[in-house]
Each structure stands twice: as C-alpha cells, then as structure tokens.
Write a structure and sequence with these properties.
CATH class of the largest domain: Mainly Alpha
Distance between the termini: 27 Å
Largest sheet: 4 strands, mixed
Number of strands: 12
Shape: elongated
Strand order of the largest sheet: 3-5-6-9
Strand content: 5-15%
Oligomer: single chain
Structural class: mainly alpha
Amino acid sequence: MVNAGDMNGSGNLMDFLDEPFPDVGTYEDFHTIDWLREKSRDTDRHRKITSKSKESIWEFIKSLLDAWSGWVVMLLIGLLAGTLAGVIDLAVDWMTDLKEGVCLSAFWYSHEQCCWTSNETTFDDRDKCPQWQKWSELLVSQSEGASAYILNYFLYIMWALCFAFLAVSLVRVFAPYACGSGIPEIKTILSGFIIRGYLGKWTLLIKTVTLVLVVSSGLSLGKEGPLVHVACCCGNFFSSLFSKYSKNEGKRREVLSAAAAAGVSVAFGAPIGGVLFSLEEVSYYFPLKTLWRSFFAALVAAFTLRSINPFGNSRLVLFYVEYHTPWYMAELFPFILLGVFGGLWGTLFIRCNIAWCRRRKTTRLGKYPVLEVIVITAITAIIAYPNPYTRRSTSELISELFNDCGALESSQLCDYINDPNMTRPVDDIPDRPAGPGVYSAMWQLALALVFKIIITIFTFGMKIPSGLFIPSMAVGAMAGRMVGIGVEQLAYHHHDWIIFRNWCRPGADCVTPGLYAMVGAAACLGGVTRMTVSLVVIMFELTGGLEYIVPLMAAAVTSKWVADAFGKEGIYEAHIHLNGYPFLDVKDEFTHRTLATDVMRPRRGEAPLSVLTQDSMTVEDVETLIKETDYNGFPVVVSKDSERLIGFAQRRELILAIKNARQRQDGVVSNSIVYFTEDPPELPPNSPHPLKLRRILNLSPFTVTDHTPMETVVDIFRKLGLRQCLVTRSGRLLGIITKKDVLRHMAQMANQDPESIMFN
C-alpha cells in the first residue's frame, strides 16, 4: 500500500483516511484473503517496530515482546492442547467402561483403574475384582446366565444411544461447526479462506465435550482428526490475544499450522509426526520459521500430555509394542500385499463415503441429522455387543492386535498349543500351532472386519465429531493380524519350503503377527488419507517400532500407488470438493494448453467489466455500483475510454471508507467527486468537497497479459495465494480472473461440473 501525501490546495480535507480506520484490511465471511497484501502489511509493521525500537528503552522492550510473542503463543497452544487431550483420554476411558459396569469404590474410576486399586485382584483374573460390578450384578445380582446377558446388552445399547443423542443435540444447538473431522475445513482455512466461527470458543468447548461422548458411545470413529480441530481452535483463541496475529490473517495461519502439528502430537503421542503431518497434509504456506514453531508447540503439547499420563503406562502412546524378532526379506511380499489391500480399501471407502455424503446433502436424509445418528448408533451397538472385538473401544482393539504373544498374554489371539518340554526365556517363544482360541478369534476378527468396513462408510460425515484415523487403522490391523497368523502357521507347518528354509527353522520364533497388524494399519490409513512420510513417522512414534520402518514404508508407498491408480484425491480433498470449498490443491497438475483470455471475465457477449475511474465518479455513482454488483473489488482506470489500469480497490474497503467519510466529514455528500490520484481534480467553484480514497487503492495489483498460458496463471494463484489477477494488453484493462474462475476452469477441463465450486 502506498501512503497518500498531503492534499494540495484543500487543507487537511479527508486526510484522516491516511490513518487506518476500523475494520480496514479485514475480510468478510466466506471470502479468500490476499496473501501478498497480508505479507506486505506485516513487513511494514515489522519495519515500523524496528525503527521505533532505537528511540527509547520502552520501545526496545516492546520490540522484544513482539519478537517473543510467537513463542509465547506456541507455549500456550501446547499447554492447552495437551491438557485437553489428556482430559479427553481419561473421560473416554471412564465413559466407555460405564456402558458395561461401574466401580463401587469410586464411580469415576474406569474398569482398569478400579481393579488396579483392589487388593483382591489376582494376575490370572486381573479384569475381575469385587469393586467392579457389571450392571447385571448391581441390579439383579447375577453375573452369568441369559437374563444377565440380556440386561447388560440392553444397558450397553441404552448408554450408547444416550451418549450419541446428547452429542448430536449439543452440536446442533450450540456449535454446528463442531461436527465432522475438521481437517478438510482446516486445510481450506489454511489455504486462505475465511470461515468465521469455525475456530471459535463455542466450537472448541462443544467439540471437546461431544468428542468424549461420541467416542464413548462405541461408534466407528476416532478422536484423532477432531483433536487437530481442537488444537487449531486453541491456536485461534491465543492468536486473537496478540495484535500481531489477530490483525493479520496471513500470520494467524502460521500459528494455525503449528497448532495442527500440536494436535497430531497429542492425538498420537507423535511430536515429529505432527510437524510432518502439518507440512505434508494440512498446511498451504509453511515457511521455515513455522517449522521451528510447530516443533516447539508439538514438544510442549507432548510434554503436557506425558505429565498427565492418561494411559497409566508412563508413555505417550496406547499402542506401545516390543517385538523380539527381526523381519525377513521374504516377508516384504505379504507386507506389499497388505499395502495393496490398504489402497483398495482407501479407494472403496472414499467412493462409498462420498456417494453417501452426497446423498445426505441432496435428499431429505440431510434434514434429520439427529435421527440418522440415533439409527447408526443403535445398529452399531446391536451388532457390536455380541462380538468381543467390536464391543471394546477401537483403541483397545488396535492395542491387542499390535501386541506380541508373550508367556503372560491371556488374549484369545494367543491361545497357541504349547510344547510341554519348552525351556526357553519368556521373550523368545518359538512359533507354535494355533489352538482353538486362535481359530475362533480369526472368525470373530473376520466378522468384525466386514462390520467395521461397512459401518465406517456411513458413520464418517454425520453431524457429530468424527475422526477417521482410528477406524482406518482398525480395519488394517484386523486384516494384518489375520494375514500374520496365516503366514505364521504356514511357516510352522511348512518350514521345509524354500522360502522358509533359510530363516524359519523348527523351534524358532520367526513370524510376529502383531507386526503385520501394524503394517496393515499403516497401509489402510495411507490408502484413505494418501499420507506417506508423516504416516510412517507417526506409526513408528505411535508404536515405538523403530526397527520396522522399511515394512511400514513399503506398505505406505504401495497403498498410495494403488489408491492413486483409481483417483488422486484423498478423503480430505474429496470432502473439500464435495462441500465446494475454493481450495487450489498444490498437488494437482494443470496440463491443458489454454490461455488467460479463455478464462477471464467478461467473455464475449457479456456486459463490460465494472470499473471505477480515477477522478470522474461521484460518491453516489460508487455506491450505486456497489449496490448493483456483488464483486469483491473493482479495477480503477484512468477513464472509461482509455481503460489504462491504475490499481484495484476492494469492495469492503470502499464501503467502509465512504461510511467513515460521511460520519466524520461534513463536506462529503452524494455528488462529491471520488478521486484516487495524489492531487484533487480541478472542480467548479461551488462544487462539494471531493473524497480522496488513494489510501485504500492497491497500486500494484497482479496482472498478466491475455496470452499468458493458464498453466502459468494456475501456478501464480497457487504459489502467491492470489484472490484475483487482472488481464491487460499494452497497459489497457481487458478483464479479470478470480480464484473461482480458475477452479471452475480446472473442473471443466477435468470433465466435472464447473458449478460444483458453489461455496460463496
């Protein structure tokens, strides 16, 4: 922006516009920010602070506070995000167990905590203790038998319905933006779009409370995606306390990128994975400074969560594993097969889920969100209860699937037939034939897998907070564990086959089924989200399985290749397009040979472009133009005849400037001349005072010529984050290209409906 000088010949008339007036530089809801302008404003602010800091000690201290404010915001985000994640984890633990029973000694204890504190618990029956009573024991004093089972079944369903109804009601009444995962919207916001209220205080509060309710209800969803939204709400709240961030939308987005990293850090206990997730998956503009700050925010958040210790295992993660066997080259084949499965599952899930969500949007189904949540919860609870693998929380299920079978494991999955003559250390148990428990567990897992695949398609996208990371990992972990047990039994019974001969001798511990579950989980999560680098880092931080990076990488890359063969979009990009958000994906390639003149408005046969002239329009003319059009801004030209471009004026700033001028300056009336030049135009003696609006004029709008290839234009829009760019020929204005025009053109070139970019 260029500051206007003193007005020659008209005293100090309207020079108050040389000082910023309230709300100038802000944006309306559902509009895109101007990245270049925000950057330039921040540079001006920084220059001003630096020059002032040499004037006095106080100004120097203020400049230091300004420099440190970014780190303070990161510290606060990390502390609040870590605390909220810890509280959510503890509350989910307790409320999930509440569906099955209650602790008599202290009702706020979960099942595990209740039996920890009991002196009468034996190791073999560590899940049973007199202090913990199932509802049937408490109400009818029966723990076994048909009547006890039916009562427990009924109360399980009732609790689930109660939690889900409360959650959907809170979202509907208090914070409609608290539904869903939040990641598609955060990606859109970080690309420069404004959605007011999406990161507000009410959204933060309601999302935190309802997240506990929906995860506890047993629905097939996770809390990891919504935790990124919660952390970004924390980031938005703290950035509003510092003018450096609250008055600059570009700087605010740097804070939100770091907050997203803190969100993943506490969701998975993976601080480095969080930083990489923010860089690879969420952020649009990620300078080096934001990388350091994201790292710091993720560190503080992880440290806070570790201090709360919600899992009671003195670790950041629920899925910590310790495998005692290395992996072998021959195992890469089943790992790659799991990668193929993950890619196919990702494609199937995205297509089915988007089709269902589109149906929800376009039919009467969307008018009954509460009923939909209640029906899906009832179906989930009724089918989930009889199967022990779907009844428990998904996190516990994944934890059990990842576990290696040690000598002390009591899980059905570890019901192998032991050799009575075995004398080996506890950690190195050889491969053994599967017992009846393993076979029944395989059937139950197969049924649970089919159920999870189907129900997750209908659950994700309902009007409640719903994450996708944990259900995707559960699908992969179940498939992986079954493949792992299959390979293990094959190796045991056919150790003389050529592929097993070199590394799987009789009596050796050569195949770890838990590792296959881990690889399958990574493959399915990669197939759905299309993450690669951050996914592998999250997985090894999540499990502590540093030795198994290569299998994880092989599965993640394979799942991405397979899924990309059917469509380039991950689930978040698909939901962005479904909702019609104006998001220009950096990963998309534009290869068509069209020119700027093919895309610009106005087209042939359309009305000419609405423009302002530099010194020949009255206040009334400008107000009429604003009233009759809904454009976000207007090019300013020398005159309508010459059409020589001078600059660009934003609609919102024109409205504010005229409103302020009418309130604060007596001489401004409807027929006052508006001028954008340095000096006022020559006017007849009795004409009203003119209105100088040079202050709000952008004198360097981005321009391209009419023969610029669209490939270059798309690249400019992506890399500079433009709202619009003007098309000229030899300095004469021909037309304008907005971000929406670019998106419509790209949709048209991809044989999609250009009007799907409908969000206004």
